[in-house]
Amino acid sequence: MSIDRSQVENVARLARIKIDENEMPDYVRSLSSILALVDQMQAIDTTDVEPLANPLDAAQRLRVDAVTEENQRELLQANAPHAEKGLFLVPKVIE
Amino acid sequence: MQWETVIGLEIHVQLSTQSKIFSGSSTAFGAEPNTQASGIDLALPGVLPVFNEQALTKAVAFGLAIDAEIGKRSVFDRKNYFYPDLPKGYQVTQMDFPIVGKGSVDITTEDGSNFTIGVTRAHLEEDAGKSLHEDFHGMTGIDLNRAGTPLLEIVSEPDIRNAKQAIAYLKKIHSIITYIGVSDGDMSQGSMRCDVNISLRPFGQAEFGTRTELKNLNSFKFIEKAIHTEVERQKDILEDGGRIIQETRLYDADKDETRPMRSKEFANDYRYFPEPDLLPIEIDDAYIEAIRGTLPELPDTKLARFIADFGLTEYDADVLTSSRPMANYFERVAEQCGDAKLAANWCMGDLSKLLNQQGLTIDNCPIAPEELGLLLVRIKDNTISGNIAKTVFQAMSDSEGSADEIIAAKGLKQVTDSGAIAALVDQVIADNLDQFNAFKGGKDKLIGFFVGQVMKLSKGQANPGQVNEILQAKIKE
Amino acid sequence: MLDKTLKQLSDGLAQGDFSSVELTTAYLDRIKHADGRYNAFITVTDAQALASAQSADTTRASGQATALTGLPIAYKDIFCTAGVRTSCGSKMLDNFVAPYESTATARLAGAGMVMLGKTNMDEFAMGSSTESSYYGPTRNPWNLDAVPGGSSGGSAVAVAARLAPATLGTDTGGSIRQPAAFCGITGLKPTYGRVSRWGMIAYGSSLDQAGPMTQTAEDAALLLNSLAGFDAKDSTSMDRPVEDFMANLHQPIKGLRIGLPKEYFGDGLDPGIRAAVMDAVKQFEAMGAVVKEISLPRTELSIPAYYIIAPAEASTNLSRYDGVRYGHRCDAPTDLADMYMRTRAEGFGTEVKRRILVGTYALSAGYYEAYYRKAQQLRRLIKQDFQQALADVDVILGPTTPSPAWTIGAKQQDPVSMYLEDIYTLSVNLAGLPGLALPCGFQTGLPVGLQLIGNYFDEARLLNIGHQFQLATDWHTRKPEL
Predict the structure, then answer these.
(1) Which region, left, alpha or beta, applies to residue C16 given φ > 0 means left and ψ of -120 to 50 means alpha?
(2) What are the distances in angstroms from CA C352 to CA B226, C120, C355?
(3) What is the pairing mode between strands C257-261 and C290-294?
(4) Helices C217-227 & C459-472 angle (0-180, nearest 10)
(5) Other C-beta atoms within 10 Å of A6: how many?
(6) Of the candidates C304, C340, C456, which has its C-beta nearest A38's C-beta?
(7) pLDDT value at position C363?
(8) ipTM over 0.90
(9) Which residue of B has its CA nearest to A54?
């Protein structure tokens, strides 16, 4: 199944990635090519096959409820593009 | 056209664990921004979640308290969307296999009607951070202290038909979660938040109408008002032949109206899929039964018991079971003094007034329940009158000592010696001969005056019953 | 000295033939003089390396040295190393200094190893050639116009070109095994859950594993001893006792049952590679192994299954790169949406963007069932194929790749052509099994590698077989003209 331009635009929006006009044809082409590859899956009958999410058959381990982390704000904000008064700043969000 | 309101509530409850659902950061309220946000909470490259056992325990406890199916195998999923207070760009939640399945909650509205409200499911998820919009010269500040706090999202069936039922349901949920200790339920701190889904349909129609979702309602009062406002708004549109737009709306308390949320700019396709960094949670019957064994008596059961065993009225029992600490306090007072009704009156009256006045909760009440019980014993054995007891109670709240100590120190013991009382009565009669003659002559109402005078003379310490008797006897002399 | 294996260097240090400072200095000098040709390193941590080496020598002097004390190593730039830039081969993290240490590198540092630096890789581990790195391609030391493989290309080249005696890589669809094969070295992808993923920047969460890239299977065993083991910080790390992977290296392999999947020897396989692998098979038979043909019927389906599952998981794993808390942020964003859209457009390269888009599509409403869920169902069938095969044989053997290393740039026009080259390695990650790549010959002057696939947690057996093979052959001692 190939993918058309409007679908690529839609997906790019969902993924929050800006695609320039001149790049668009390449993405449409390569995405179509990849989807053509994966369409091979459709030929296989998988009725009643349980999906496998994790290769190992195991259950989630539980962690004891205890505070084990201390304040490391300075260290962890050292890489912040824009931080002030301990907060991460972003362009204003309007609700 | 008669419209039926259909309401469903989604309640987000913050679980009262020490640490977050997937990290060891503290969940304490009110810390400086980003001082309780570890690498996991900040979604640094390479971090991984590890699941808090208490979040599981509390979720299961809630499920048991509402008689719900418990999911023996539940799975975490990623719910994908972009927002600055959501560091990973996805929220870890439970979609297809929640920890709690179908259950139900019984409610009683103010007018005494009973309803059963279905609960569709309750699932675990993580809270997002907070956005602060002021003070940043056109920018928004993000605080991730709250990101990762464990939430239990409780979804009701659309069984609610009006605001009163909605409030009763909310209060019931609040009561259950605080009773079993899974949350502090403090709405002012955001421990319990409610989204309301509202739609209208013509009476008799089976199909649901288009619904809107009201978000960010953080008090019972606002929820009630918001529901009323939104129902009116929808009714107006429908009666004009219009259609309801399915959207999310916010309640503006100042204007008492709802308005659409500035639409999340792009339609949200959450692309749920199983969280690959976490494995399925598997629990067995033994685990579930162990939790059941730790559940305290639930509010409804306690209410019924108070009515049956203590002979309380439904109203009194309801007030006394409104919180587990109050219910426990009352029971200990009642046990100590052996008179449930007396204990109930004092707990609902003087005690509650004291707590309100001093801004205290029952947990930091200056008077221990046994102490109050002993005070009530002194009323019952006539050592002091009910009125004097109020004075003693006040002194006890000021930490002046036990009831007996205060009675002794202030010499408040009721006078019960008939001779002494007789002397007081004689004195009052002597001082009020005209009235006494009128009284003797048939003006029965004057007894109140005379009793009052004797009480005054005795500084309230004469036993009023005996005063009465002696006065009556004097008439016959 | 720089040709010695990790084991030999360990013995050398123990015998006092040289100090860790001397050894480290020798590697740092070599990197400085030679890496310009290969571009295997993104960051070289000279000062830190010498300080660690000094510390290791002191430890040795006090009699507390262990097998790995003072040995130099380099890490794929996907491992968070505290205080050191960790770029993941991407502009998005070009300025990111990791504030914490990954478990894998912490364990090796704890064992006394000396970090030389961070090696080049395909951006966010997405690729099979190391051509998509923000820092430019790494070149194959056997032929500078050829790709070294990927995504752990820098790590493979560092070992092959003797810039480091060993390195760590990661493998999601073949990213340790394939570059090891292309560069003529040994590479191990452990069983999923064997090595902690804490601090290892995530690409395909249910597929990723860290592993050693070395000159020999023995060296891989030495490193695995310190790498493997349960980590409470990784919920997918398995709580299993860690055996001594060196203990069984010397077991003879007489009677070993080896399965050759017929699907791995079809028409798509380069004849020169086939010949080299069949020679290796004869070698194993000469050592007493019993070889039979087996079938892994869904081998080809591993390609579509992987290229749905990995991008789907990656698309969400990479959502955190949004310019808010760390990493690249675009200049002068006009509003929040603009900040997201341009930050991510600028920070990610083309192949990463492609995979994010494919992954987002595969999970989106209306397509989830046909793509993601279908791929997960195929994954179970592929796992079942292996379980069935491994009931009859002890280990599976085949080529690591269908072709030798291609020319840099040759597959840039059509990404799918590169995906098809992963056919022998992908299903091993889908099933979560361990895989070991060993050099076994040459084709057109470029190395050829065979792959051994074992049952869950059977690394000891794989390493034993590898070691025995390397006792009987000398492919692993060959090195390119340096």
Answers:
(1) left
(2) 46, 16, 5
(3) parallel
(4) 160
(5) 9
(6) C304
(7) 95
(8) yes
(9) B276
